[in-house]
Amino acid sequence: MAKARAAMCELCDRACPRLTVHHLIPRQYAKRKKLAVGPMIDICPPCHKQIHALFNNQRLATELNSAARLRQTPELEKFLHWIRKQDPHRQIRTHRRYR
Questions:
Q1: I need a labelling partner for 67 at 20 to 30 A (CA). Which of 5, 7, 19, 43 fits?
Q2: Domain range for residue 30?
Q3: C-beta separation of 14 from 84 below 8 A
C-alpha cells in the first residue's frame, strides 16, 4: 500500500499530512450579505487556527480576502516565518488574542 502524499499548505508552503479549507470570504459574512461562497484555499490546521485567532470575520472579508494579503500582514508574517521551521507532524498550540 502506498503512503499518502503530503499536500502543500498555500500559506506556509510546508508539505503537511492534512489540510483544511479556508474560505477567504467567511461563510458567516457571505451568508449575511447574501453573497455566493467565495474562493477557498487549502491550508494546514496551524495556519488556519492562527488566522482565526488573529483576525475577526469582518476584517477577513473586507481586507484580507486573498492568500497574498494574508501573507503580508505583520502578525501572520511573523507566525509564517516561525512555522516554516517546524515539523509538519508536530502539534501546534494557538493562543487566541484579543481582536
A1: 5
A2: 9-83
A3: yes
Read off the pTM: 0.82
Q: What is the grid cell recorded at 38?
A: 467565495
Q: Is residue 65 part of a domain?
A: yes
* Spatial distance between the Cα atoms of 65 and 40, rounded to a whole number of angstroms: 10
8 A C-beta contact, residue 37 and residue 30: yes
Indicate whether 17 belongs to any domain.
yes
The DSSP-derived string for 57-99 is HHHHHHT--SHHHHHHSHHHHHHHHHHTTS-TTS---------
* pLDDT 10s digits, 16-58: 999 999 999 888 876 666 666 778 999 999 999 999 999 999 8
Please count the structural domains in the chain: 1
